[in-house]
Design a protein that fits this description.
With 111 residues, the protein is of the alpha+beta class. It contains 2 helices and 5 strands; from the N terminus they run E-E-H-E-E-H-E. A 5-stranded mixed beta sheet has the order 3-4-2-1-5, covered by helices on one side. Strand 3 and strand 4 form a beta hairpin. The N and C termini lie far apart (64 Å).
Length: 111
């Protein structure tokens, strides 16, 4: 790893796929392979992604594990917040539902 490396970004793409972008060396590539990422040839090099259709929980676990291992090896890593798995003993944050037109809570009257 060199100090001037751009962060390795682990993100969920617009189609729901989890992919990796950024600069990395052979060691970082090995970590990503161990975490379950696939290296698919493309016109611009390699498309690094997790396999499709294994479920969001599986994808989140493997993306979080890869980010933790790369961070432990002192690589700059950006992991999308929606891919982060909470530490053991903590529950996942509850997402608030989208706001819709609702009646006011009971006990409150409008004037």
């Amino acid at each position: 790893m060199t100090p001037s490396m751009k962060p390795i970004r682990i993100t969920r793409g617009p189609g729901g796929e989890v992919e990796v972008t950024g600069s990395f060396d052979a060691f970082a590539a090995d970590v990503l392979l161990r975490a379950g990422f696939l290296f698919e040839p493309s016109l611009r090099g390699h498309w690094i992604r997790l396999p499709f259709d294994l479920g969001r929980d599986w994808e989140n676990e493997h993306a979080s594990w890869a980010a933790e291992m790369l961070t432990a090896a002192r690589y700059p890593v950006h992991l999308d917040p929606d891919l982060r798995v909470p530490p053991p003993g903590q529950s996942a944050p509850k997402h608030r539902p989208a706001m819709t037109a609702q009646a006011p809570p009971a006990g409150r009257t409008r004037h």
